[in-house]
Amino acid sequence: MTATPTRPADAPPSAGPTPAARLATVLRLRELPVTIALIALVTVTYLANPLFLSSQGVKDLLLNSTIVIILAVGQALVIITRNVDLSVGSILGLVAFSTGTLFATVPGIPIVVVLLAGMALGALLGAINGLLVTVAKVPALVITLGTLYIYRGLNNAWAGGTQYFAGDRPDAFGALSVDTVAGFPLITLIALLVVAVVAIYMVGTRPGRDLYAIGSDPDAAKLFGIPVARRVFLAFLTNGVLAGIAGVLYASRFNSVGATTGTGLELDVVAAAVVGGVAIFGGSGTVVGAALGAILLTTITSALTALRVDKFWQQAIVGVLILAAIIIDRIAAVRTAKKLRLSEARDV
User: Which UniProt keywords apply (predicted)?
Assistant: First the structure.
């Protein structure tokens, strides 16, 4: 008969983390600085211009950030694997114009079918990026810079001088950006659903956690049996799907789509992910942080406009935020490496 071990009578009961430990954990969250900056920005702007947080003002803030939130979530997946996708603006442009084309040429086509078509086109373009990066073994920066121009050229050749306007789409499709639920526009709720699903995938599934291992050390990830090429390809594929969703919603949000739709958007997306705490060197960060970064950047633009600050300073502030995020991340990485070396030295 096996005896069940018992705790000695004089042994202290096991206790959970102390309040100080919990506080330290919160302070280490990568999303904390961007959250504090966002709250401070909104507070200062509201004090200077109370209309900034009117019901219409809040709705405009949510609408302005929706597209960038979805794109930033996809970009975060790619950056965490130590890559980058510069073609997302061009993918969005192609999908947005194809959305306008479907509504104009196929009367009565269901919105769900259009959304699925946009996701399929985005998946195809993202898969091309993923295959070129994983098979050709060429840096993603170079590959996606090339596909940025290729996809943009395809859109220019297809669209030419054609533009599709709000009147070319069904009223129900345009209502996605007008109707609200509990004060949230419908397309913003779609964006929040995307954030929630991808966040759960990243922390709750083996493939999601593998992306962090790949970004931290690709060679070590291979030694541990992680299919690096397959996971990186999946990240680019998912990024393409999310860019497809963003392209369809863009066609609902804005009055017109054409050959130049999405031009330059990729820089805002990368900036949102980096400012939101996704390490540009890979291996750390969250999609929630990327979403917060997107909200912060769009809020900065709206806040400075409400305060009548020149557009040049808006761009300069965004640039300062990007540099600050990279420097802070680098300092944190150096400190972590130093602590690890000291710990190893004590163990020896």
Answer: Cell inner membrane, Cell membrane, Membrane, Transmembrane, Transmembrane helix, Transport
